[in-house]
Design brief:
Blueprint lengths: L15 E2 L4 E2 L6 E2 L3 H6 L17 E3 L3 E2 L6 E2 L4 E2 L3 E2 L5 E6 L2 E6 L3 E2 L1
Antiparallel strand pairs: 1-2, 2-3, 4-7, 4-11, 5-6, 8-9, 9-10
Length: about 110
């Protein structure tokens, strides 16, 4: 019916090409049209863009205050054996015996 692809975010068929990107007026999502880019959003990446995997060792790049605790994770702390979560922006790890979830934007491989 339509020559334009359906929206990868909301799966609606009401999309158009604005000259540079495909646009979905229903949800406001914009994409370039390459299938690879839509699947790459589900990959966990560190602050430098390196792909993270289960078991990687990473370093904290900023002092982080832990919510609900007086604990502070200092910049330069090495974290071994991270575990990926369902959210590609978060990883689960253990620091000083405490299980903590860290944002990938504060980590480097």
């Amino acid at each position: 019916m339509s020559e334009f692809p359906s929206c990868p975010k909301c799966n609606m068929d009401n999309t158009y090409f604005d000259g540079v990107m495909n646009v979905c007026p229903d949800c406001g999502y914009e994409w370039t049209g390459s299938e690879e880019e839509a699947t790459q959003d589900d990959v966990a990446k560190d602050s430098n863009g390196a792909v993270l995997q289960d078991g990687d060792a990473v370093t904290v790049i900023k002092d982080l205050k832990v919510r609900g605790s007086s604990m502070v994770i200092k910049r330069g702390t090495k974290v071994k054996s991270i575990r990926l979560t369902e959210n590609p922006e978060e990883v689960d790890c253990k620091i000083d015996g405490s299980s903590i979830v860290l944002k990938t934007c504060f980590l480097k491989k």
